Queue: 4 jobs
Job 1
Amino acid sequence: MRLDGPVAEVAPSLLGGVLRANGVAVRLTEVEAYAGDTDPGSHAFRGRTPRNDVMFGPPGRAYVYFSYGMHWCLNVVCGPEGLASAVLLRAGAVVDGHDLARARRPGAADRDLARGPARLTRALAVNGDHNGVDLLDPSSAVTLTGPDLAVAGPVRTGPRVGVGGAGAATPWRFWLAGDPTVSTYRPAAVRRRSVPS
DNA sequence: CTACCGATATTCT
DNA sequence: GAATATCGGTAGA
């Protein structure tokens, strides 16, 4: 597996790969690419902060961040080191540890267990403690292994979820065509203003 | 199935 | 104060 190339090429190459953590494994079906230097949608675009620090480190590390005050999202840092690019792991199909995953996601249908970035981290029990771990080290708590077979299936691309502005024009969301575990598209939401006083 | 909305950390203005 | 790489519950078609 190669993570040091252009992020737009690395991202689709991860589809079909297997992510394993805490007794559950998923086959990746949906990812998004974020380039740190040129991409307004990237957390790293405006520079280094305590939150995005690991994005500036070596490739193969996990970048885990807390979103909307409630959810964890997991990224794979891509190289070369210093570019601060990453691939957001958006969805997958559970291939091992179904009972554990179901216990962590009460009431969810099997295909919904890891259908969405925050659902995926919940099914795998990934949180901020895993920020910065080396996904390529088999002894890590979270590991990522490349697709075993050459091709997992046809790949489709489209706009990224929740990214507005100039970044919306870049079709850097990649998923396996027809896979039922790909998350439903939610356009960048118009949200109601904060509580009126 | 779609549409709306609340919860709320981190960062930017 | 406002925006954001979201989700689950609820309401309605």
Job 2
Amino acid sequence: MLAMSRRRTPLPPDRRRQLLLEAATWVFARKGYRAAAVSDIILRAEVARGTFYLYFASKQAVFLAVVQAFHDRIRQELQAMDAAPPGDAAGLKARLRDGVARWLRFFAEHRDETRVILREASSIDPRFEKGYAELRQTAVSHFAARYRRLQAARLVRGTLSPDLLAHLLLGMFDELLNAFVLSDPAADIEALAAELADFEWNGIAPDVEDRTRGPERTAP
Amino acid sequence: MLAMSRRRTPLPPDRRRQLLLEAATWVFARKGYRAAAVSDIILRAEVARGTFYLYFASKQAVFLAVVQAFHDRIRQELQAMDAAPPGDAAGLKARLRDGVARWLRFFAEHRDETRVILREASSIDPRFEKGYAELRQTAVSHFAARYRRLQAARLVRGTLSPDLLAHLLLGMFDELLNAFVLSDPAADIEALAAELADFEWNGIAPDVEDRTRGPERTAP
Amino acid sequence: MLAMSRRRTPLPPDRRRQLLLEAATWVFARKGYRAAAVSDIILRAEVARGTFYLYFASKQAVFLAVVQAFHDRIRQELQAMDAAPPGDAAGLKARLRDGVARWLRFFAEHRDETRVILREASSIDPRFEKGYAELRQTAVSHFAARYRRLQAARLVRGTLSPDLLAHLLLGMFDELLNAFVLSDPAADIEALAAELADFEWNGIAPDVEDRTRGPERTAP
Amino acid sequence: MLAMSRRRTPLPPDRRRQLLLEAATWVFARKGYRAAAVSDIILRAEVARGTFYLYFASKQAVFLAVVQAFHDRIRQELQAMDAAPPGDAAGLKARLRDGVARWLRFFAEHRDETRVILREASSIDPRFEKGYAELRQTAVSHFAARYRRLQAARLVRGTLSPDLLAHLLLGMFDELLNAFVLSDPAADIEALAAELADFEWNGIAPDVEDRTRGPERTAP
DNA sequence: GATGAATGAGAGTTCATTCAT
DNA sequence: TATGAATGAACTCTCATTCAT
């Protein structure tokens, strides 16, 4: 009569796992991997200590799960972006801008996970580095491929290395994300993207004589 | 086997402190602040536990010392770069390239410290964030000022935001550093810098008609 | 040899806390606050290191708990003693004696706690001094008030300072406690109390003829 | 020319030892045995770490030396008091008062050492208990002997136990010392001693008319 | 499934003591 | 005789993990 309760409503395992994953994401995002304690996670998930270990083998395991879930989301997004048609020079700069804005928005909407991925995965524990390196490589390859296509279509200078361009793009993107977007929810993403695209465009624009008619204009 | 150890090699305090600082840098670079243990540091420095605390009040204190020492070096370097004369458009791109190369080389030569700065400072522990933010801001201001001067001299497009440009430059720089230079001692820094400068130049080059006479100038 | 230990005996939290409190009291009583190690406490309580910190936030915290628990007991006892009726001169000396005996017995029954209170609180660490000073003051006030009542009833000389008397009484009491009661479980508390009360009442002045009718009697 | 100095003026060993002893007394008095660090002592004595161990084998050893030095002083004082002539009842109470005052003054003048003796020696570390117990016993014996002499001279009631009286006296004395004298340099020692002596002599029994011929007067 | 009391290795830090100079 | 850099055992406290219920 006293002991009658204590045990919690059993939940469908998938649901409970999901709750734990969300709690973990929230905690990792705010404290980082090492400072985050299992105690923090179970406190937020409102489950008992033991319950946590029913769903994840270790603290490391949840972190991996959190990271991988987000990696998957990013890869999805990456593939979704391939849907857009190549178009011609006329709309290219606008499309570059929209692409950047879309990415910035995506990460802004997943601030928490982004913090984890960018801060933790890029280091501290070598065990988590591999997954991040792979994701990064995927992104680089993706953008490099895009540059390559644009070069083939003569929409981008042919003398530039597509791989290196991809890296430079990622670098600029990271910086905007860290310096403006993640730290300020009210950041003007469209403006940032426009500036990046403008810079990117005039940097990658094909050679001079074509340019006299400028990229914005449609060729006659 | 037992007696062989238990060294006792008194060293001038400055020397010992330096050795500890180097050991700490090495450890922090590889493990990050939280994962790094004082045990790791004394193991590498080959001193007893107590010796460490003879020179640094706490783990936090060594970390700060490591970071500040490097921050100071960077600020020195930053000021040293102001010495270079402005020059004209003809040599600008080459100078941009050389500047980037110089920086890459500087960080490549301080691989360990760089890892600490880039990984920890970008955070995890809010106590260390401030110093990094300030340094970053110093760098941004520095480059923004340079862009402003170049704009005044009509060597850079006036429509670009100098501050944002500075951020983009830093982002690209970080990426090259992380993706190529820090991970590969044999990275071709000159080539990387040349590509970055090429990209940067064509992005920031003043408007078109001037460009026909532009720095590269096609031979007639 | 290895497997034999590693018990794991979950207990109701209140019970475990109590056990730890008792172990801590025992240890503090014998070693004093500073010399007592958490290791000593867990060894005696037969729990793991972590278990201790499950119930007390710090070594300081257990000590405070031990001290406060005992302070509370003493204050209770102090109030309980006010129940006794004032009575007349005839029974006063007997009542003084009984009061002292009761106190001695009380402390004899709480030997361990008493050692902690009397040794630590009287100092070493200023953080713990306040509580002791307050308790002591409570006791002084209590006894001073009693002397004042007795003076009003003309049962005690009016020229004496009640406060100072209270201090002197406490001093004698402490001494009996330390010199006889705490160190010897078989001490004859009744006899000690009788002697103290006799002295308290009559002082050391020789029996003059008037006094043969002694203090118990009222002068005719 | 740089290394010429560092070594300090060699001092006569006895003098240096004395300086260290004084520094140690000062430190122990303020921090207690455990909290006091050898560092504190050498800092105050302005000698190097190793020098300390040239004069004392260990921290424990200095403490013992400090304690014994003071014990010796006390025993000297104790013997000095035996010089006073017994006198008759007329001046006895005044002599009791003066004796108490003299002791209070003695300890007030050696506040530092007194703190060490009373706080540390009365415990914490069983190693130091013996010396204190012996000193205390010496004092008890001394005062008990005096009471015995006074009883023989019929100046003190014969029914009282001299030993117990000695303890009670010591207890009251300790209390005045702790509660008033040690904590307040401006304490009115004469008044305290007068009250103690008055109480010691007369107890708390009300003034009966017979007593008006009381102890101060010589019986007719 | 779910609980939470219990565990213990290991973290950062202190300090009495030693000994090469 | 005097120095002070060096030592390492011992301390308090943390937290990922286990398991009896």
Job 3
Amino acid sequence: MNKASDPEREYPRPIVTVDVVLMTLLDDVLCVALTSRRSEPWKGHLALPGGYVHVNEDLSLDDAARRVLEDKAGVRIAYLEQLYTLSGPSRDPRGWSVSVSYCALVPAEEIRASLKADVSMVPVSKLSALPFDHRRIVDVAVTRVQNKASYSSLPAFLLPETFTLAELQHVYERVLDARLDRVSFRRKIEDQGFVEPVKGEFRKGAQRPAQLYRLRKHVLSSFDRAFATG
Amino acid sequence: MNKASDPEREYPRPIVTVDVVLMTLLDDVLCVALTSRRSEPWKGHLALPGGYVHVNEDLSLDDAARRVLEDKAGVRIAYLEQLYTLSGPSRDPRGWSVSVSYCALVPAEEIRASLKADVSMVPVSKLSALPFDHRRIVDVAVTRVQNKASYSSLPAFLLPETFTLAELQHVYERVLDARLDRVSFRRKIEDQGFVEPVKGEFRKGAQRPAQLYRLRKHVLSSFDRAFATG
DNA sequence: TTAATAGTGTCTCTAAGACAGTATCCG
DNA sequence: CGGATACTGTCTTAGAGACACTATTAA
């Protein structure tokens, strides 16, 4: 019945690309990096940074994603996570294709310091249509980030090395798009213990200085319980 | 610096396969379907059902996963979810390969009724080494299922169309490998409202009959709050 | 009636939210 | 000192666990 199930036969191979949703918080707004495509299809249009897997160079898809980021953005990546793999015969005019999508987070300072000229940061709320199914990929990325933010240390990767608890709470609130209780936030963050105070270091301003904290480990930590849904 | 970044050049394409972790609860034990490989590499060894993407036949990777399941198992799939995409130059001796892994859940009754002869169900706790990186894929699948079980209706897909709340609690306990409080469980399940009683239908036994329930929608529903970790 | 499982009422306890208080800086 | 922000103590409240109770069947 199923002639194609002959296990010895080799099949024509699909195209394999990686596409990266590079996100940061610029002026309190969650933004995505878009590049102007240098080749067909969609040459000249803004799209997610991405490209072919280089089988003679990349040791993994993660590797390919990092290479793409290095090439397009040249930024220190605080966090990289595989998102989802999209596929089909018609999503790319070059033929049956597989796109392994990634989500990357960087602190705003990195973006400001070292972004290439042909990359622009666009607020996720102001995204118009994108080539291929890149719009869907961005939606998956935003949903994933918001989801993980509710029960993990993920938003901390949008901040520099050291930060105050007020700054940390602010990033959580921006990513989750929700208000968090100040007391509960401190309690929870301190209980979970994924940050530690940097002894003797304070953020100084016009008011009382605030204790600076840093991540204990530079990996994602999950909480015992999620933030309330509000 | 990066000679390989020429955007016009086509690159050699990796092999693309799908591998499926088909799981069910057989006699209260979480089991995974393994098939004896019909071709090299690892011919004759037990491995996850999987195969090449057929670009002239499959409309998506999900499609390919369903085809593989149809071919190897011939079962009605209650739940199918993409897991993770593994990759690398050496995970498959045939060359640089990409494996898109899937997790599928089926009720035990389906398995008992219609499993093919060369497929065996093995308890996840008794898995030995598997070819390729299939062991890692199984680990990802089990972790994902346990994770989702703690905050969604996922375990319900391991049950037949109708079930009692006691049966539902039992599958949650088996999947999570934890005891759940009976009162809290009923409260939570009823509050979340993803199941509805089938009016007038009862499971009859040697004792008081139990109300039968069914899923309201045949899609995964997430809870407001997760089951406690304790 | 008894054994067994289905289902409910309610107390306790934990953790999140609310709110008011104290602490420490700048000017 | 006042204004502003950092940080803390504690009351209230929502939801999970514990436990005792009632309900309904077969034998």
Job 4
Amino acid sequence: MTSQLEAYRLLQAGAEALSFVEEAGVCVDTDYCREELVGVDRRLFRSEVRLKHSPLGKAWIQRYGSAWRHSSVAQLRHILYQDMHAQPFKASEGGSESTDEESLRQTGVDGVEHLLELRRWKKARDVLVSFVRYATQGRMYPSFLLHTVATYRSSSADPNLQNVPHRDKEVMDVCRRAIKPSPGNLLLEIDFSGIEVAIAACYHQDPTMIAYLNDTSSDMHGDMAKELFLLPRFNTPYKEIEGWYTVRQASKNGFVFPEFYGDYYINCAFNIACSWCKLPQNGIWRPDQGASFAGKPLGEHLLSRDIDSLDAFTNHVQRVERNFWERRFKVYNQWRKDWYASYQRTGEFEMKTGFRCSGVLARNQVVNYPVQGAAFHVLLFTLIKLVERLRGMQSRVIGEIHDSAIIDVSPPELDRIIAMAQEIATVEVPREWRWITIPLRIEVARSAIDGNWAEMEAAG
DNA sequence: GGAACTCGCCAC
DNA sequence: AAACGTGGCGAGTTCC
């Protein structure tokens, strides 16, 4: 078992390595930011005009006049739930009626789509403005901290380089085009794929999970997708069927990962029904909408197996969940129970990397912290070694996002750095930590020379 | 005029 | 029994 002293040494070396990362800084194209802000502002203006002329906007201005602010959730709450008598869909953390994206869509009020569009581009605007604000002579210097997070992960600030938009393709493009390699260089991103799932397996040693992780031809998310959506058998491989990727993603992001984090079937069923099947709308189960698979909407696949309501789907997901934890991954499930019981007895637990957690923690925290923390420590170890070995070279590690490192690479050094990263991740990490019993894999992506962070291609 | 709070939302 | 884990940040708002 790794000792607390080793944990301390990892933090010490990590802090030193990250100080070099901070010193290197990130190249940012402020001319691009300023130009792009013109277009973003134009989008914002157009959406604001549309909102003003919608029923929602009219009601808003009628009550607040020139004091109306589309960014004021307090005003919005009043308009939606008092003046327009919309049905609150859920409460926020503090107990008031929520005005988040899901809640706005659920109201069905005419005009919320313009407000959501405003929020989307406001986010992009905030990112570009912060880049301009933090840039000095074409570089900015985000902080990477190791002492702020309960799980012993890192955080980033001023600006936060760990939450630059990615999933929304359009917004991602606008924001990440601003981040560049140094002149003549390229950006390289080294990413540990599925690291949290692999690290979790090092704790629970579930044979079914280990088999999935060792057999690259198996596909856990694909198997779960078939079960979740009751997909029929086909003569052709699933991956050749239209919509397979979407269905698999729905299963992964709507069921498997939420279950790993501690969510449960009622939420999963509802989210999948809303986000992927576009169900239920106004309480009516409409199987003809949403993502489709083999030319048929997912709702129809479900209907053909007698799932004709949200209740029926929820019951089905409950059965899938039982099968998931009580049969498929029962050893994993037993580990969660034992791990939590041990915490309840002792009031503390220790991560595989030697970090100790104590205090009043909820069950989900107790189960998640050791995985989240140790997974990050694998990245931190890799980053420390990379920073060490890049001394005397031209390339610099310039950032880190929990399971990936970003490097500003001088082209002649590219192949050497990729080989270095492969060696560290797949040989040196498991040699340092014998408890790593699952093979670790990295994915490498690169930009063009003088490219940007929005246009990354697989490399290595 | 600033501290502290809530809310929404981006990342992993 | 409980019910998605960890952060940072901007805007609005309230309080002192």
